[in-house]
Amino acid sequence: MHLHCSLKSLRKRDPTMREYLAQIQAICDSLAASGNPLTETMYISTILSGLPPEYEQVVAVITSSQQQYKLDGVCSILLDTEARQQDFLGQQLSVNLAQGPASGFGFRQGPQGFGYNNGSTNPYGCGFGGAPF
Prior knowledge:
By secondary structure, the protein is mainly α. It has helices at about 1-10, 15-35, 40-50, 55-65, 70-100. The chain has one domain (about 1-105). Pfam families: Retrotran_gag_2 (PF14223).
């Protein structure tokens, strides 16, 4: 019961997407080892429900799609989205620094089910165990 509660309360805050997915995978691995593996749909739902507002558009696309996304695809989309967000923030920082303070803009730094390690080696480190993040 404790693992299920931990999984439901997990949120992506400061960690990278890779770290967030690794936290979920660790709990899912423990659940699977105890004989309570998650379905793919529950695994994806858990990932999406813990994302912050900046991922809302991605979540909307995935959840409203007529075609069901696979776990590897969801992980890939989320990792790519994070990389694009970081690139965008880096570009904004470069522009702000080049413009200087007179511009008026500032930048504040501020085979049992999912989770069971079956030796898969998918490049995203999520899914059926696979390589660690």
